[in-house]
Automatic annotation (TrEMBL):
It is found in: Membrane. Coiled coil: none annotated. The chain crosses the membrane at residues 21-40, 52-72, 93-115, 121-139, 160-180, 186-205, 217-241, 261-282. This is Putative MFS monocarboxylate transporter.
Length: 294
């Protein structure tokens, strides 16, 4: 409720540097994770679950009220539709964008959900697991800003494709090796590389919606696509938990339990990459012009 109203109007204020601007705006989510991961860990240890939730609620109130009072209004002089136009909904670009959002959201949260458990299985302490999650969020935040600048230079759709595809490759090239061999080096590398690559989608997807569907349709398409992303987040990690199972004995097995989760996550992100590539192609087809920078 706090995140999406800002997201719905922010792209209107930027044109040439829209990627960098959105990357900077959305980097706040990574900064929040960087700060909140160790904070929540300490609150849970010292105050318990109930007071941790109360403190987080008060933080939301303290941060949200000034934003609600100071946020800029929409630049549009006419009220924009909130329902997706049926002509847009029939386009392959729209269908593939929605499917990409569903699959990316499903796969995106799996490594973050199981990062503490996997770290414990490798032999790290719970505090170190929370620290690694914080590191991932910090890198993710920086990545959103960096990806925004790169997107303005080389094309927002191009950068989005590379970002999603690279996140899928990192899952199979680094996390899978860590699970198969039980080594810490590839796991640390994955925490950093995945934070770097996965941040691009969150920062760039709103800008590509504007480019593909136009600023007038942005509010309706963005609202629907993020609704679909919510559905993806709803089933991605729970299904991963079912695949992982309850563990045996003192914990999980890297080679048997977590490897299945890694293959599942990599498949979701790879499928999302193919959908994003499809959007890139069909958008050029609709506009009857191929541009290398798009």
């Amino acid at each position: 409720m706090l995140y999406f109203p800002i997201l719905s109007i922010a792209p209107e204020y930027f044109t040439a540097h829209r990627g960098a601007a959105m990357g900077f705006i959305l980097s706040g989510a990574g900064v929040g994770g960087l700060v909140l991961s160790p904070l929540i860990r300490n609150l849970l240890s010292n105050l318990g679950v109930r007071w941790t939730l109360r403190i987080l609620a008060l933080i939301n109130l303290a941060v949200g009220l000034p934003i609600a009072l100071s946020a800029s209004p929409s630049l549009s002089s006419t009220r924009r539709p909130t329902l997706v136009n049926i002509a847009i909904a029939k386009k392959p670009t729209f269908l593939l964008s929605a499917l990409a959002a569903l699959l990316q959201a499903s796969g995106n949260f799996v490594p973050l959900t199981f990062l503490p458990d996997f770290s414990l299985t490798l032999g790290y302490t719970a505090a170190t697991g929370a620290l690694l999650l914080s590191v991932n969020n910090g890198v993710n935040s920086s990545s959103r800003i960096l990806m925004g600048f790169v997107a303005d230079r080389f094309g927002r759709q191009n950068t989005l494709v590379v970002s999603v595809l690279a996140s899928a490759v990192s899952v199979w090239a680094l996390w899978l090796v860590a699970a198969a061999e039980g080594t810490k080096g590839p796991w640390i590398a994955f925490v950093v590389v995945y934070g770097l690559t996965a941040g691009g989608y969150n920062a760039l997807f709103p800008t590509t919606i504007t480019e593909v569907f136009g600023i007038q349709a942005y509010a309706s398409v963005n609202g629907f696509v993020y609704f679909v992303r919510g559905l993806g987040a709803f089933f991605g990690s729970p299904v991963g938990g079912v695949i992982l199972g309850e563990g045996k004995g003192n914990g999980y097995s890297l080679s048997t339990d977590f490897e299945k989760v890694v293959w599942y996550d990599g498949a979701l992100l790879l499928a999302s990459s193919l959908c994003v590539i499809g959007v890139r192609g069909f958008d050029a087809w609709d506009k009857k012009a191929w541009r290398w920078k798009a």
